[in-house]
Design a protein that fits this description.
This protein has 765 residues and is α/β, with parallel strands linked by helices. The protein has 27 helices and 22 strands. It folds into 3 domains: 171 residues, Alpha-Beta Barrel (TIM Barrel); 184 residues, TIM Barrel; 331 residues, TIM Barrel (Alpha-Beta Barrel), CATH 3.20.20. InterPro entries: Cbl-indep_Met_Synth_N (IPR013215), Cobalamin-indep_Met_synthase (IPR006276), Met_Synth_C/arc (IPR002629), UROD/MetE-like_sf (IPR038071).
Length: 765
C-alpha cells in the first residue's frame, strides 16, 4: 500500500528560510548563501519523507515566496513595470513582483482560498507574451534525483492558475482569463517534456479551484486543457490534486473524465461528502489518493477511524489503486512536534505536526497492507480517549454563558449616524482624520527585551520600563507627525493572536510551531484545546499607560473573535461557531474594561473574517451570520460616545460588503491600495456606507515609500465615491514588518496628503 504527501512546509523547523530571505533582502548575504539554505532544507525534507517510507514525495513544492508566483515565473508572465527583458527570471525580478522595489509597487497579494496563507495574484491580459522563463520545477526534480529520491514534481494546474489570476491594469474587467489557455499550454508542454526527459514517472497538477462553485464554461476549460495536454502527458502517471472542500457532483464528473489522468487526489477531511461520490462512481483502474490525514490542523489523526474509511474505499477502488495521503499540503501546519519542549505531555499527546503527519500517513498505509503497528495504533487510541475525557477541555460556566447568547442579535441601541455625531462631539477630529492600524516597527532591541523577559533574564520591572519607553517613543513620533488618533504601537506583542491567546484559558502555545503566512512572514498560531474565558484584563494597563502620555485619542487595540478563531489551530470536537462565541464573550469583557479605563476609541481587528468564508456559496450565509454576530457581541454594551473601529486586510471584500455593514462598527479600516483599489468599485456600484471608513492609502507590505502626491491621488479617488465626513486616512495594515526608515517618511507623506486635501476641500466651499 502506497503513501503520498501533497506538499510540505518550506520555512524549516526553526524558520531557517525566513532568516536567509531577510538577510538576502537586507543585502547582508549573497544569492548563493540563500540558495544553499534552500537546498539544505529541500534535501532534509526529501530525506525525512524517504526515511519515513513515503512512496510519492513531492518536489517543486518548495518556494522562495509563493507557489503561484513560481508559476507566473515559469510562464514568463511578468508585468511590464518590472522591466524584465526575457531570459531566466532571477531573484531581482522575482522579489520585485512579490515585494515591490524603490520605483514600482508589488503585485497584489490575497488569501489562498480560506487559509491564512497568501499568494501573489497574476496580472494577465490579451497582450501578455508567455515564455518558459523559470526551470525551477525541472531543476528541483533533478536535484532530488541526484540525492537518490525519485519525486513527483508539483505544478499549479493551468486552469486553476488562470482562475486565480486577475485582468491586469488597463485590461477590461470582463476579459476572459480562460481565453489565455491556448497561450499557456505550450509552456506547460515544454515543462512536462523536460520532466519526462529527466526521468519523472509521475506529475502532480494542483487544481484546487475544482472545489469552488464553477459554471459549465469553467468546468469545460479543465476538459479542454487536459485534452490538449494528453499526448504530451503520454508515458507519465498524472495526479490531479484537489483540496479544501467537497467537489460538487458536476466537478467530480469533470475530474474523473479528464483525459490522460491516472489518479485523483481528494480532501476527505474537509470534503467528507466527496466520499459518497467516490463510492457511487469511481473509474476502474484509476488511483485514488485519499486525503485522510488533515493538512490544515495539528490534531493527531484518529487512526482507527481513518483506517475504517480507507477499508471502505479499498473495497471500491481496489487494494492496489488506493494511496494514503494528506488532505492538502502540510504547508498550513507547524513543522515538527519534537521541537516543542514546553507543551505538557497530555496536550502534546493529542497533537501531530507535519513530521508526525508523515508518520501517520505511512502507518495507515502499512496497516492497510497488513503490517499494522499495534503499539502505534494503541497509543493513538489512548490519546484520543484522553482528549475526550480530560477535565481541562470543558468549562460548564463558559458553555452556559455561550448558550445564553441565543435569542439576541446583540446590536447597539443607537444607529451609527447618531453614534458618530456623539463621538465627534467628544473627540473633535478634523475631516479626513489620520490614524494607523496598530503596530509599529518591531526593532531588534524590542524583540530582545521580550525574549529576555520570557526567558526570565530580566525582571518584570525592567521589562515594563523598556516597553513604556518604546510606547513613549511611538506616541512622540505620532504627535510629531501630527497624526490625529494614535496607537501605542503594540511593543508588548509578538503576534496579535498569540498575545491574546496567552492570556485566555483554553489555549496552548508552542515554541517553534511556526507557519508561513507569506514570503518570510511566519505566524505561530495558538492551539485552542478547550473552552475559552478571560481570567483577567489583557490590554487595559498598556492602553491606559499610552493614553496618559497624550491628550489625543489613543486606540485600545484588540483582536476580534473571528480572527482569533481563524488564525488559531481550533479544536475539532465542537462546531467552530461555538468556540467563536466563547471568544467573543471574553473580548466583550475586555472592551468594557477598556471603556471604564477611559479609552474612547477601541479597535477590534477582524482581519481574518473574510478568509473564513466557506468556499461554497451555499454555506456563506450561515458562516456570515455567526461571524458577524460574534463581532457585535464584543461591543454591544458600550456607550454611544465610545468609537468602535475594526480592521480587515488582504481579501476580496466586495462580495461580503453587506455583512461588513451589518457588523455595525463605527469605523472600518480596510486594505485597498495593493489590490488596485478594487474595494472602491463596490461604492461606485451604488452601495451606501454610512459609517466611518478608511480604505488603505498605501501598501505596508512593500518597502516602497509613496509620495504625498500619490497618496493624495488615492484619497481623491476615495472622495469620488465616499462622503467627506466618513472618510479616514490610514495605511493598508499594521507597520510591524517595516523599518522606521520607511515608516517615518511614508506616514509624513500620508499626513501631508490629508492636510493638502483638507485645504483644497475648505477652499472649494
Amino acid at each position: 500500500m502506497a503513501s503520498h504527501i501533497v506538499g510540505y512546509p518550506r520555512m524549516g523547523p526553526k524558520r531557517e528560510l525566513k532568516f536567509a530571505l531577510e538577510s538576502f533582502w537586507d543585502k547582508k548575504s549573497s544569492a548563493e548563501d540563500l540558495q544553499k539554505v534552500a537546498a539544505d532544507l529541500r534535501s532534509s525534507i526529501w530525506k525525512q519523507m524517504s526515511d519515513a517510507g513515503i512512496k510519492y514525495i513531492p518536489s517543486n513544492a518548495f518556494s522562495y515566496y509563493d507557489q503561484v508566483l513560481d508559476a507566473t515565473s515559469m510562464l514568463g508572465a511578468v508585468p511590464p513595470r518590472y522591466g524584465w527583458s526575457g531570459g531566466e527570471i532571477g531573484f531581482d525580478t522575482y522579489f520585485s513582483m512579490a515585494r515591490g522595489n524603490a520605483s514600482v509597487p508589488a503585485m497584489e497579494m490575497t488569501k489562498w482560498f480560506d487559509t491564512n496563507y497568501h499568494f501573489i495574484v497574476p496580472e494577465l491580459g490579451p497582450d501578455v507574451n508567455f515564455s518558459y522563463a523559470s526551470h525551477k520545477a525541472v531543476d528541483e526534480y533533478k536535484e532530488a534525483k541526484a540525492l537518490g529520491v525519485n519525486t513527483v514534481p508539483v505544478l499549479i494546474g493551468p486552469v486553476s492558475y488562470l482562475l486565480l489570476s486577475k485582468p491586469a491594469k488597463g485590461v477590461e474587467k470582463t476579459f476572459s482569463l480562460l481565453s489565455l489557455l491556448p497561450k499557456i499550454l505550450p509552456i506547460y508542454k515544454e515543462v512536462i517534456s523536460e520532466l519526462k526527459a529527466a526521468g519523472a514517472s509521475w506529475i502532480q497538477f494542483d487544481e484546487p479551484t475544482l472545489v469552488l462553485d464553477l459554471d459549465s464554461h469553467k468546468l469545460q476549460a479543465f476538459t479542454a486543457a487536459y485534452d490538449d495536454l494528453e499526448s504530451t502527458l503520454s508515458g507519465l502517471n498524472v495526479l490531479i490534486e484537489t483540496y479544501f472542500a467537497d467537489l460538487s457532483a458536476e466537478a467530480y464528473k469533470t475530474l474523473i473524465g479528464l483525459k490522460g489522468v491516472t489518479a485523483y487526489g481528494l480532501d476527505l477531511v474537509r470534503g467528507a461528502q466527496t466520499l459518497d461520490l467516490v463510492k457511487s462512481n469511481f473509474p476502474k483502474g484509476k488511483y485514488l489518493f485519499a486525503g485522510v490525514v488533515d493538512g490544515r490542523n495539528i490534531w493527531a489523526n484518529d487512526l482507527a477511524a481513518s483506517l475504517s474509511t480507507l477499508k471502505e474505499l479499498e473495497a471500491v477502488v481496489g487494494k492496489e489503486n488506493l494511496v494514503v495521503s494528506t488532505s492538502c499540503s502540510l504547508l498550513h501546519t507547524a513543522v515538527d512536534l519534537v521541537n516543542e519542549t514546553k507543551l505538557d505531555d497530555e496536550i502534546k499527546s493529542w497533537l501531530a505536526f507535519a513530521a508526525q503527519k508523515v508518520v501517520e500517513v505511512n502507518a495507515l498505509a502499512k496497516a492497510l497492507a497488513g503490517q499494522k503497528d499495534e503499539a502505534f495504533f494503541s497509543a493513538n487510541a489512548a490519546a484520543q480517549a484522553s482528549r475526550k475525557s480530560s477535565p481541562r477541555v470543558t468549562n460548564e460556566a463558559v458553555q452556559k454563558a455561550a448558550a445564553a447568547l441565543k435569542g439576541s442579535d446583540h446590536r447597539r441601541a443607537t444607529n451609527v449616524s447618531a453614534r458618530l455625531d456623539a463621538q465627534q462631539k467628544k473627540l473633535d477630529l478634523p475631516i479626513l482624520p489620520t490614524t494607523t492600524i496598530g503596530s509599529f516597527p518591531q526593532t531588534l532591541e524590542l524583540r530582545r527585551v521580550r525574549r529576555e523577559f520570557k526567558a526570565n533574564k530580566i525582571s518584570e520591572d525592567d521589562y515594563i520600563k523598556a516597553i513604556k519607553e518604546e510606547i513613549k517613543k511611538v506616541v512622540d513620533l505620532q504627535e510629531e507627525l501630527d497624526i490625529d488618533v494614535l496607537v501605542h504601537g503594540e511593543p508588548e506583542r509578538n503576534d496579535m493572536v498569540e498575545y491574546f491567546g496567552e492570556q485566555l484559558s483554553g489555549f496552548a502555545f508552542t515554541v517553534n510551531g511556526w507557519v508561513q503566512s507569506y514570503g518570510s512572514r511566519c505566524v505561530k498560531p495558538p492551539i485552542i484545546y478547550g473552552d475559552v474565558s478571560r481570567p483577567k484584563p489583557m490590554t487595559v494597563f498598556w492602553s491606559s499607560t499610552a493614553q496618559s502620555m497624550t491628550a489625543r485619542p489613543m486606540k485600545g487595540m484588540l483582536t476580534g473573535p473571528v480572527t482569533i478563531l481563524n488564525w488559531s489551530f481550533v479544536r475539532n470536537d465542537q462546531p467552530r461557531f461555538e468556540t467563536c462565541y466563547q471568544i467573543a464573550l471574553a473580548i466583550k469583557d475586555e472592551v468594557e474594561d477598556l471603556e471604564k479605563a477611559g479609552i474612547n476609541v477601541i479597535q477590534i481587528d477582524e482581519a481574518a473574517l473574510r478568509e473564513g468564508l466557506p468556499l461554497r456559496k451555499s454555506e456563506h450565509a450561515f458562516y456570515l451570520k455567526w461571524a458577524v454576530h460574534s463581532f457585535r457581541i464584543t461591543n454591544c454594551g458600550v456607550q454611544d460616545t465610545t468609537q468602535i473601529h475594526t480592521h480587515m486586510c488582504y481579501s476580496n471584500f466586495n462580495d461580503i460588503i453587506h455583512s461588513i455593514i451589518d457588523m455595525d462598527a463605527d469605523v472600518i479600516t480596510i486594505e485597498n491600495s495593493r489590490s488596485d483599489e478594487k474595494l472602491l468599485s463596490v461604492f461606485r456600484e451604488g452601495v451606501k456606507y454610512g459609517a466611518g471608513i478608511g480604505p488603505g492609502v498605501y501598501d505596508i507590505h512593500s518597502p516602497r515609500i509613496p509620495s504625498t502626491e500619490e497618496i493624495a491621488d488615492r484619497i481623491n479617488k476615495m472622495l469620488a465615491v465616499l462622503e467627506t465626513n466618513i472618510l479616514w486616512v490610514n495605511p493598508d495594515c499594521g507597520l510591524k514588518t517595516r523599518k522606521y526608515a520607511e515608516v517615518k517618511p511614508a506616514l509624513n507623506n500620508m499626513v501631508a496628503a490629508a492636510k493638502l486635501l483638507r485645504t483644497q476641500l475648505a477652499s472649494a466651499k
